[in-house]
UniProtKB/TrEMBL annotation:
Alphabetical list of PANTHER family matching this protein: MAGNESIUM-CHELATASE SUBUNIT CHLD, MOXR FAMILY PROTEIN
SUPFAM superfamilies: P-loop containing nucleoside triphosphate hydrolases (SSF52540)
InterPro entries xrefs: ATPase_AAA-3, CbbQ/NirQ/NorQ/GpvN, ChlI/MoxR_AAA_lid, P-loop_NTPase
Entry superkingdom: Bacteria
Residue ranges constituting the ChlI/MoxR AAA lid domain according to the UniProt record: 252-316
Species of the source: Candidatus Nitronereus thalassa
Protein name, UniProt field: MoxR family ATPase
Pfam family, one: AAA_3
Alphabetical list of Gene3D superfamilies matching this protein: Magnesium chelatase subunit I, C-Terminal domain (1.10.8.80), P-loop containing nucleotide triphosphate hydrolases (3.40.50.300)
Length: 324
């Protein structure tokens, strides 16, 4: 493990937690998504610092950031860009859209129609945009954080399960506690005063090459064969839950895809790396299981009628699959 890379990310994590108070779970998962080269779907009520979190992350990296407000009248070309006709020479020139940034916030993704959602998810999956017969590669450092608002669902377009599977993790954010709320009020008051404009800690933005080197370090962490099997058994339990419990078998219509196995391994590695270890433990896998699996499981109507949630199902799977 490279000490300089780990030190840079440790400092970045401190900075994020000082600027985004009371959302340590979200900031940790943003860093894990960055290290695991994946994308995040975040759900939470308005005002819970979702936008602030990814903007703050961008300020800690040598990377550009763009926020896209998804609305019902948005078109795919508004996201990807389009060919512009040049009357001077009768040619077409491609004008890049906002998707060609390193960090992209897709705000309220469920308010855009299916064609726009598909354009974004294609870019996430293929890391390129195709206009006509030409494909344009996206930046190597590329992270999308899409948000959903759990209230005001009228006029929204819910993401189909197959599209949800493209997101590495699903994160639900909740209101901060009393002490965090006090700290938020104090921080905002300080930031409004010019004498408190200096950053809480000295932070040097992390270059792209350091992020890519950290990703390689994450992939080099030791993962024992027993834990590899444990990850596979957890995912298989979402597909064949009746082997573990009759109730679990009644709760699920479809289990997690192979993307879940890949994602759970990479997230567990990133979690261990951020903890300063050079090996993956069962606790790393369990810490990431809900975020990686819950949005990939399609519950039965019977389970929904009984008030069973995907998180409850994943908890039951974790309780029943033997830990090596």
């Amino acid at each position: 493990m490279s000490g300089s890379e780990h030190s840079a990310f440790h400092q970045l994590q401190q900075y994020l937690n000082q600027q985004v108070i009371g959302q340590e779970g979200l900031t940790l998962r943003l860093l894990i998504a960055l290290l695991a080269d994946g994308h995040l779907l975040v759900e939470g009520a308005p005002g819970l610092a979702k936008t602030t979190a990814i903007k703050t992350l961008a300020s800690g990296l040598e990377a550009n950031f763009h926020r896209i407000q998804f609305t019902p009248d948005l078109l795919p070309a508004d996201l990807t860009g389009t060919d512009i006709y040049r009357p001077q020479d009768g040619s077409f020139r491609f004008q890049q859209g906002p998707i060609f940034h390193n960090l992209v916030l897709a705000d309220e993704i469920n308010r855009a129609p299916a064609k726009v959602q598909s354009a974004l998810l294609e870019a996430m999956g293929e890391r390129q945009v195709t206009i006509g017969r030409t494909s344009y590669p996206l930046p190597e450092l590329f992270l999308v954080m899409a948000t959903q608002n759990p209230i005001e669902q009228e006029g929204t377009y819910p993401l189909p399960e197959a599209q949800l599977d493209r997101f590495l993790m699903y994160v639900r954010v909740d209101y901060p506690d009393v002490e965090s709320e006090k700290k938020i009020a104090k921080l905002v008051r300080q930031q409004a005063q010019t004498e408190f404009s200096k950053l809480p800690i000295d932070l040097t933005p992390i270059p792209e090459k350091t992020v890519l080197a950290a990703r390689q370090a994450v992939l080099n962490l030791h993962l024992s064969p027993a834990l590899e099997e444990y990850i596979v058994h957890l995912v298989m339990a979402t597909r064949e839950p009746a082997k573990y419990s009759e109730d679990l078998g009644r709760w699920v219509r479809f289990g997690a895809s192979p993307r879940a196995t890949i994602g759970l391994e990479r997230c567990a590695r990133a979690h261990a790396w951020l903890q300063g270890r050079d090996y993956v433990s069962p606790e790393d896998i369990q810490a990431m299981a809900h975020n990686v699996l819950s949005h990939r499981v399609l519950l039965s109507f019977e389970a929904e009628a009984d008030g069973i949630t995907p998180d409850r199902f994943v908890s039951e799977v974790l309780a029943r699959v033997a830990v090596p």
